[in-house]
Design brief:
13 strands, seven-stranded parallel beta sheet, 42% helix, globular, UDP-galactose 4-epimerase, domain 1, alpha/beta, Rossmann fold
Length: 313
Amino acid sequence: MRILVTGASGFIGRHLVASGMELGNEVVGTMLSPEELENRLPRPPGVEWKRLDLRDGGSVHRVIEDVLPEAVFHLGAQAYVQAALRDPVETFQTNVLGTIHLFEALKKRPPAKGILLASSASAYGTASRLPITEEALLLPTNPYGVSKAAQDMLAYQYSVNFGLRIIRARLFGTTGPGKVGDALNDFAVQVARLERAGEPGQLKVGNLETRRDVSDIRDVLRALWIALERGDPRMPLNIGAGKSYSIREVAAALQRLARVPIQTVIDPALLRPTDEPDNRADISRMKALGYEPKIAIEQTISDALNYWRAESS
């Protein structure tokens, strides 16, 4: 199967293209610039890479005409809440306008196996009831979440109006060794640096009381393939662990694993103006499709710390 992965240079994308190759597919991945590939994340041989700025509609149409994919994973996005707060315009240009460009191009060349949109739990915002089901209202509390809610709604209307098979996968936290920009890896990077210095130090943290539904990338990859193969465009799918962990628990686990004494210290720069207290997912729909998370959070934390220990050595 010929697969196109937008945003393939990102954390999930790099693992997804590697998984696609291992499954015997022909994989084309897009990147914004070649520099995005210059890290230790998987870069399997055989993947065809194309530069693509989703904000450029002409380029999007040309890539689709050139690749003629049988399946598309749409991961391309500006994916950071803080960046969206600083520059909501750029976030909407990439996430919303870019998605329109992609769907308009795919209208002319519908992929036989369908499209998977990587939406986000940020579209839900603060939940009034836990666990969060797919029927919960979309009430995002930051520009990034609003952009993902818009993507989700665009996917539904392109399915209804134009017959595109678009699966809406609402991803909760996804992490693993080598990710940049999430609390677990940010903490692990700090711990690895303190260990290298060989002296007691401080772990700078934000709000420790928030709880997040977080899954290991290895589980999420399995979920994405299942969703593409078995999902129904009429029914969005929560992809998560089905349980949540406090940021305090993650920090404490890393303190226990650290090779030097570490004290946690609140850094005001890491606090957000709004922060959902908990976002535990109801993953009943994914379980009905045959998905079950397998990787324990303790394993993910240990693997992430070992990754950054090697990176800083």
